[in-house]
Amino acid sequence: MLLAGLALAALSLVTGWVTVGEVPGLLDPHVLSLFFVLIVAVACARRSGLFARGVRAVLSRVRTSRALALAAVLVTGATAALVTNDVALLLVVPFTLAFEAAAPSFEAAGVVVLEIAAANVIGCLTPTGTPQNLFLFVRGGFTAGAFLRAQGPWVLGMAAATSAAIPLVVPARRLPAPPLGRVNVETAPAAAAVTLLALELLAIFAVLPVWVPFAAALTSLALLGRDAFRVDFSLVGVFAALFVGVEGLRRSPLFGLLDPLRLFGTSPSGFMLSGALLSQAVSNVPAALLLSPAATGSPGAFTGLLYGVNAGGCGTPVASLANLIGARLYLEGRSGRRRFWTVFFAVSFGLLAAALALSILLLKYSQRP
Question: What is the pTM of this model?
Answer without folding.
Answer: 0.85
